[in-house]
């Protein structure tokens, strides 16, 4: 693993294990959102990170977290009669998340993601 990625991995592991660091991280996100006058936020992430990101989102006050379940339910409802799309539902979710990221007013990337150039 490259040094920067190893450093980032260590930072994320520390963040995940410290309630104090999670709170600090959440406050920083909230501060940036306030500076940009943003109200809603969404975390596009792999399934194994959802629990951690929900913990982060629960610490962000006065902002509206859009849960990934809302997106999934919306897409299922919109495309329920299209078997071709439903056969590749995971790809549809990924495409929808990429579009949300592209259209967003703020994008925070991870050095582990291929989405850092959205």
Number of DSSP-assigned strands: 2
Overall pLDDT: 87
Q: Strands of the biggest beta sheet: in what spatial order?
A: 1-2
- The first-to-last residue Cα distance is 23 Å
Number of domains: 1
Global outline:
globular
Low-confidence stretches: none
Largest sheet: 2 strands, parallel
Compute the number of helices: 6
* Helix-and-strand structural type: mainly alpha
Helical content class: 55-70%
Strand content: under 5%
Order of helices and strands: HHEHEHHH
Rg over CA atoms:
16 Å
Question: How are the SSEs ordered, and which strands pair?
Answer:
Elements: H1 3-17, H2 19-35, E1 40-41, H3 50-58, E2 64-65, H4 68-79, H5 83-87, H6 89-103
Parallel strand pairs: 1-2
Helix pairs in contact: 1-2, 4-6
Structure description:
- This protein is 62% helix and 3% strand.
- It has 6 helices and 2 strands.
- By secondary structure, the chain is mostly helical.
- It is globular.
- The model has no long low-confidence stretch (mean pLDDT 87).
- The chain has one domain.
- It starts with a helix and ends in a 15-residue tail after the last helix.
- The protein has helices spanning 3-17, 19-35, 50-58, 68-79, 83-87, 89-103, and strands at 40-41, 64-65.
């Amino acid at each position: 693993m490259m040094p920067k990625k190893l450093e980032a991995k260590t930072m994320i592991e520390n963040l995940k294990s410290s309630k104090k660091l999670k709170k600090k991280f959440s406050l920083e996100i909230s501060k940036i959102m306030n500076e940009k006058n943003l109200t809603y936020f969404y975390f596009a992430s792999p399934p194994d990170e959802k629990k951690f990101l929900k913990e982060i989102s629960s610490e962000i006050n006065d902002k509206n977290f859009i849960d990934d379940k809302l997106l999934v339910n919306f897409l299922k409802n919109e495309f329920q009669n299209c078997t071709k799309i439903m056969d590749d539902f995971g790809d549809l979710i990924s495409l929808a998340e990429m579009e949300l990221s592209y259209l967003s007013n703020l994008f925070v990337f991870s050095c582990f993601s291929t989405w850092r150039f959205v």
